[in-house]
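Hi all, posting the design record for the shared folder.

TITLE: backbone redesign
STEP: 1 of 1
STRUCTURE INPUT:
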């Protein structure tokens, strides 16, 4: 067997390792909580955009279909032109809304 495992330092090393594990576990929990908050914030923002666009009265299926259609368009050869056009339109609409 390994001699260093039988020394009097073993309980101290074990406590250090356990403390490190507790610390890492807490860090992991904090990180997951932050990720969930960021995800929730993003979803709220996207819902707000649907409302701003006047689509909040549409059914979920219509909005989802619209988004799927947009994704297909962004996969075509002219995707950059479409993206640029949509960005300009969105930037203009967002600037016009500000007081």
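Okay, here is what came back for every position:
SEQUENCE:
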């Amino acid at each position: 067997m390994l001699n260093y495992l039988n020394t009097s330092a073993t309980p101290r090393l074990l406590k250090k390792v356990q403390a490190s594990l507790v610390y890492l576990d807490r860090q992991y929990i904090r990180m997951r909580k932050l990720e969930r908050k960021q995800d929730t914030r993003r979803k709220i923002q996207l819902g707000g955009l649907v409302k701003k666009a006047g689509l909040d009265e549409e059914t979920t299926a219509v909005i989802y279909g619209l988004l799927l259609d947009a994704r297909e368009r962004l996969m075509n050869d002219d995707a950059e032109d479409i993206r640029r056009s949509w960005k300009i339109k969105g930037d203009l609409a967002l600037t016009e809304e500000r007081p």
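COMMENT: Residues 58-99 form one domain.
Let me know if anyone wants the other runs.
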